[in-house]
Amino acid sequence: MCGLAGFLRTASTPDRDAHQRWLENMGQAIIHRGPDAGSTWLDEAVGLVHRRLSILDLSNAGTQPMVSASERYVIAYNGEIYNFQELRDDLISQGLSFRTRTDTEVLLALYEIHGPECLQRLNGMFALAIWDRTARKLFLARDRLGKKPLYFYEANGQFAFASELKALTPAPFVKTELRHDAVKDFFFYQYVPDPKTIYKNVHKLAPGHWLMTDGTHTYQEQYWDVSFGSPSSASLDELEDGLYNLIDDAVRLRMVSDVPLGAFLSGGIDSSAVVGLMAGHTRKPVTTCAIGFDSKRFDEVHWAKKVAEQFNTDHHEFTVKNNVADSLGSIARFFDEPFADPSFVPTYFVSQLARQEVTVALAGDGGDENFAGYSKYYTDQVENRLRGMFPPALRHNLFPGLARLAGLVNTGPTRKAKSLLGTLALEPDEAFFITNSFFRRDVWNDLVKGELKRETHDYDPADITRAHYQNADTDDHLSRILYTDIKTYLPGDILVKVDRMSMANSLETRAPLLDYRVVEYAAQIPAALKLHGKEKKYVLKKAFERMLPQDILYRKKMGFSVPLAQWLRRELKPTVEQLLLSPNSGVANFFESAGIRNLWQKHLAGDDQFTQELWSLLVFELWWQQYQVNA
């Protein structure tokens, strides 16, 4: 795994020495992504910098930026192409020869022959930049699911790109002006969805897209999308066998490494299946790592230990006790824009633990989005069936008033009644947005103020969810929301979290369940075989009954859930009161301080309903202190 950055040189900034310093500083900003080596390329039109975490061909021959055999193309690349050996053999049969054993050189050769069409041949995770010295054009591309990040800045005739936002800012022409609609997006989603960033004129290249620019004209194209429009008619047994064999092959491909390799293990079906398949592809014990909490409600290490014993792994554990307050600020700084999924904390610690043993770790990410593993999918399914029992006019006209009446009494049952009635009054896509929201609209309206309020008054973050929901090529509701999460929550939250926290520890992570072949296969499985009554991930569980015990397959899984309300009242209480309640805080520029203090007092009194809003405000403040105050 690696990091890359660069910029197009313009006639208005001809100072070569200054540009070399920019490149070196850009690379230094992401040295954690590639501590093993760093190099630059600077010619009259472009500057490229690369930081390398050596995984394949550990020799200096793999150093980037790498120049093609024809010397026409120069590449800086982050990722792994799992089928590169097959592609390499095919190219050799066509008469090509190679100087290294790297997938980087294979990528260069493929691009020289096929141009952007080469992306269709790749099975892997990647973000890449290729400079065409003859045509003087820059090509950027990002993998199908968005496992690897790629940002670009474009304004006033200037263009720059990088693996992380922090690697853009050493270029002095990159301006970091806050984007207010993205701020609102963050508070409702917990992250800033693609292709926006927290800054104006800085964008994420969307998953499954490529970009071409000469500095004057920029063109983007989508080269991949997942289709739910052709559900399979195969039997359950056939689907189970096909799924098992495909995931097994995805695991096999991801075990190619010239450095030590292991796995994250939570004891749930996704990571347990990955570990079990890994054990079948190696004679040595698989190295596994698990994270526990000093809270029985959230601790799952005993389940991980059971799986570790079944497959005789070399197992390691770490318990998050009083580590949170001391570590939160330093961990959060690895996110260059606000990010509030609290599971980033255990993800950081499990990555730190894994890095002590291995350089590459396989993980179970993607199982929930592919096979309907989240509880919210069942809740949404039930609500949507109820919605269908009432005429739209009745729902739209009567239910909002009933919801307001229920809200007049603040008890657990009436809050649930208010939520349900309010959700049933909405259309399915809007209701799914509410399900995915982590900052309620009434709380937002009570708190927001000033320029942020004026700038975003007519902006609705739900538009992002609606657009993806409507873009799915199916009428099946569950399939539509799975598609929506694959386009939003997966790349914007899950994959950002794993990438930043693993890279913070110079650890490469690989996700077999996000092999694009698995994603495409899962999309063809009828929705009723994913969410089967109340049983989530039904077809995946059936497929792995041949390997995993029933109590692992059919237990309630928490994933990396954290005791957030407890953290805020205990370990993080001084942090909240020092940062969030300060009159000089960043959030005080955007939200009513008295309102925040009121929420905090309610939380301290035992009312947990504002936990997520308070956490989001705290994370935003941590980001503000790091990247706005200290910018």
From TrEMBL:
One of its GO terms (molecular function) is asparagine synthase (glutamine-hydrolyzing) activity. InterPro entries: Asn_synth_AEB, Asn_synthase, ASN_synthetase/amidase, AsnB_N, GATase_2_dom, Ntn_hydrolases_N, Rossmann-like_a/b/a_fold. Residues 2-216 form the Glutamine amidotransferase type-2 domain. It holds the Pfam family GATase_7. It comes from the Bacteria. SUPFAM superfamilies: Adenine nucleotide alpha hydrolases-like, N-terminal nucleophile aminohydrolases (Ntn hydrolases). L-glutamine binds at residue 103. The keyword ATP-binding applies. Transmembrane segments: none annotated. Pathway: Amino-acid biosynthesis; L-asparagine biosynthesis; L-asparagine from L-aspartate (L-Gln route): step 1/1. This is asparagine synthase (glutamine-hydrolyzing). It comes from Marinobacter antarcticus.
